[in-house]
Write a sequence for this structure.
């Protein structure tokens, strides 16, 4: 049986290698890249299988770019994305603009008094808050709810969405191919004429998200505290959704300043995939996106993460499900050993044949789930390779730690088997092919690799790097990384904060 599996792996590897090479050659002919005079990079991949197209816009700014004292601001861009523009979502923008200016004046006065530490006048705070809310109500009368999204839907658009990570923010949806010009107008308008419409309403939504994802979630609170001790100078030590105090403080004016700084053409990449003619498409792109003023790519100074020299631990006492999490500092994604971490993750965590699942879940039955991965909470900066496990009933977080460490020691001492290494490489190629099977997946891959490496082809070079990983590489990297002095631990113990069971 083992010989059959090995032969099957070799056969699959051969097929995937041939398919991958064929796809790359085909992509070279079909991918067109253009940088507009204002600095915006646009990629186009012809895929005429159906008369539709998808796009993926990625901005090189995420939670790590939140200004000090204004955590959560990058995430607000996601919430503002489809609120409309000066021409969409309003009955009278001239009047709305004046009303929004009054909202900001009223909020600034209220916020100054509200955060005052000495001589705070509660009556004045209440009066200023009431004035601010009245100004908001006045501005809201001009809003046409959801006009931007309804325009997309009426024209056959699907899956309109946005997401924010620590390293970037992305926007995407799909449309019929004959709606290309409508897309170009709507998407370029968002960057050319943004309006921070209903900003404080959306800020309240984000605060509720925080309450649900972190404040009311033991695991969410643990991860927030875990990251805060795992990192020091790095912005990765801050919560992605923002601190409560910051969410209550920053303004629509702060959001507009953030947008003007980071949402410039030179800091963005757009990928289009579908039944699109390159010449006609780029003519449309030039006409609409060329209107956006050029701006320099933001230069940032980010405090480097201090190398760890001692184990750090945070324990959360809560009457909930126990949980175990540990992380080890690893280099950013451009490091020469990044592919090695990918291989380790696949061996340890990919599916029911992975080492952690077999050992902790299937054989010993001490965990309900267990896995490991790199890139927590992002990978543009020095980050964490994390392991986690959820104990089965009657088992503890400490048992999870011991079992995970046993598997880590095996990797450090013996590495992986030849069959495991072959299967990881086969799975990686198969995963690449699956991700290239639809317009949206293609757009995501092309845009992200163009942004991160300056060349979409890195998508395929990543497979070559994984192919080059040896067992000696795995043992070397594991031995250097997975050591106690480089470890941060997070535990949920099932008992009250006072220590009672």
């Amino acid at each position: 049986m083992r010989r059959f599996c090995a032969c099957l792996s070799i056969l699959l590897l051969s097929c995937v290698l041939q398919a991958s090479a064929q796809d790359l050659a085909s992509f070279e002919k079909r991918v067109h890249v253009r940088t507009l005079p204002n600095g915006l990079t646009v990629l186009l991949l012809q895929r005429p299988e159906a008369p539709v197209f998808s796009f993926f816009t990625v901005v090189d700014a995420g939670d790590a770019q939140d200004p000090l004292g204004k955590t959560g601001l990058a995430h607000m861009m996601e919430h503002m994305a489809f609120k409309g523009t000066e021409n969409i979502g309003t009955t009278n923008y001239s009047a709305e603009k004046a009303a929004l200016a009054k909202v900001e004046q009223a909020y600034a006065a209220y916020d100054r008094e509200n955060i005052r530490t000495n001589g705070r006048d509660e009556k004045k705070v209440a009066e200023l808050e009431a004035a601010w809310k009245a100004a908001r109500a006045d501005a809201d009368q001009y809003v046409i709810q959801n006009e931007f999204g309804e325009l997309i839907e009426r024209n056959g658009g699907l899956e309109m969405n946005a997401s924010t990570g620590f390293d970037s923010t992305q926007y995407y949806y799909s449309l019929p191919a004959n709606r290309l010009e409508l897309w170009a107008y709507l998407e370029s308008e968002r960057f050319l004429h943004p309006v921070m419409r209903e900003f404080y309403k959306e800020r309240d939504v984000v605060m509720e998200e925080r309450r649900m994802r972190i404040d009311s979630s033991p695991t969410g609170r643990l991860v927030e505290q875990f990251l805060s001790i795992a990192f020091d100078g790095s912005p990765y030590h801050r919560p992605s959704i923002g601190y409560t105090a910051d969410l209550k403080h920053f303004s629509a004016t702060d959001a507009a300043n953030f947008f003007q700084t980071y949402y410039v053409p030179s800091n963005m990449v757009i990928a289009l995939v579908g039944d699109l003619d390159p010449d006609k498409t780029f003519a449309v792109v030039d006409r609409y996106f060329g209107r956006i003023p050029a701006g320099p790519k933001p230069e940032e100074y980010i405090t480097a993460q201090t190398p760890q020299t001692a184990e750090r631990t945070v324990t959360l006492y809560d009457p909930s499900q126990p949980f175990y999490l540990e992380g080890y500092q690893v280099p950013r994604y451009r490091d020469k050993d990044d592919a090695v971490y990918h291989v380790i993750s696949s061996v340890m965590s990919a599916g029911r044949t992975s080492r952690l699942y077999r050992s902790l879940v299937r054989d010993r039955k001490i965990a309900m789930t267990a896995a490991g991965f790199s890139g927590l909470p992002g990978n543009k900066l020095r980050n964490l390779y994390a392991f986690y496990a959820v104990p089965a009933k009657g088992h503890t977080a400490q048992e999870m730690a011991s079992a995970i460490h046993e598997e880590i020691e095996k990797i450090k001492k013996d590495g992986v088997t030849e069959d495991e290494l072959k299967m990881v490489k086969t799975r990686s190629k198969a995963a690449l092919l699956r991700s290239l099977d639809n317009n949206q997946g293609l757009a995501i891959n092309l845009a992200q690799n163009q942004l991160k490496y300056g060349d979409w082809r890195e998508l395929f070079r990543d497979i070559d790097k994984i192919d080059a990983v040896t067992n000696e590489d795995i043992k070397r990297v594991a031995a250097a990384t997975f050591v106690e002095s480089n470890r941060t631990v997070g535990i949920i113990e099932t008992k009250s904060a006072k220590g009672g069971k």
In short: The mean pLDDT is 92. The two ends are 49 Å apart (CA to CA). The first helix runs from residue 2 to 30. The CA atoms of residues 55 and 272 lie 4 Å apart.
